């Protein structure tokens, strides 16, 4: 019983702009070793509910359970002036407004539902499609109305790797 990750065999150098996505890719690659999950990485979407196109960091399909759309935000994240989320751009040593990754993940999940709606009608089954946000380089984060704990995942391991048990609990 082994799952699939696509594309497979990626290395850290394939993630030049997102160490966070590399950490999640590694964790999901370990998890699928004993689960029949299908994981898609870096999926482009032509039709999107809130913009002209979209990009999904990860789509995880879990048989008999459903689909989860995961938005990954690497680096250090903070709430800046005016309550906006900001990410530390390590190359330029400055804080950059990243918008709301929660709204991005939610819109991505709705866009995916719209795209697969025809197939769902033919199958006569409606899978659960949900979403979450991962901050793999953050050790702690406070829950709020916008980001309840069940939509949020952070790194809790001392070795800097995403905890497989916590990730499975999240999914």
Summarize the structure.
The protein is α/β, with parallel strands linked by helices and 171 residues long. The chain contains three helices and nine strands. The protein has helices at residues 19-31, 101-123, 164-170, and strands at 4-6, 38-45, 54-62, 66-72, 77-79, 85-89, 94-97, 128-135, 152-154.
Describe the structure.
The protein is built from three helices and nine strands. With 171 residues, the chain is an alpha/beta fold. The strands form two sheets. A six-stranded mixed β-sheet has the order 1-2-3-4-8-9. The protein has a three-stranded antiparallel β-sheet with strand order 5-6-7, with no helix packed on it. 27% of the residues are buried.
Query: Structural class, judged by helices and strands?
Result: alpha/beta
- Which runs of at least 5 residues are low in confidence (pLDDT < 50)? none
Quick check: average pLDDT?
Answer: 75
Widest sheet: strand order? 1-2-3-4-8-9
N→C terminal distance: 18 Å
Radius of gyration: 16 Å
Sheet with the most strands, sense and barrel status: 6 strands, mixed
Say how many strands there are.
9
Shape: globular
Number of helices: 3
Report the β-strand fraction as a percent range: 25-35%
Q: Give the SSE string.
A: EHEEEEEEHEEH
The helical percent reads: 25-40%
């Amino acid at each position: 019983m082994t799952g699939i990750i696509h594309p497979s065999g990626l290395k850290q150098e394939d993630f030049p702009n997102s160490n966070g996505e590399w950490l999640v890719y590694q964790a999901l690659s370990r998890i699928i070793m004993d689960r029949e999950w299908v994981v898609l990485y870096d999926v482009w979407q032509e039709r999107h509910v809130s913009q002209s196109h979209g990009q999904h960091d990860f789509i995880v399909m879990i048989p008999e359970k459903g689909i989860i759309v995961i938005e990954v935000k690497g680096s250090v994240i903070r709430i800046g002036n005016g309550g906006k989320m900001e990410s530390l751009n390590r190359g330029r040593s400055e804080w950059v407004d990243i918008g709301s990754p929660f709204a991005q993940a939610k819109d991505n999940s709705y866009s995916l539902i719209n795209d697969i709606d025809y197939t769902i009608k033919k199958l006569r089954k409606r899978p659960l499609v949900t979403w979450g946000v991962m901050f793999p380089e953050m050790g702690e984060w406070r829950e709020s109305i916008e980001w309840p704990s069940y939509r949020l995942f952070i790194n809790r391991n001392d070795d800097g790797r995403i905890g497989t048990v916590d990730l499975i609990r999240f999914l």
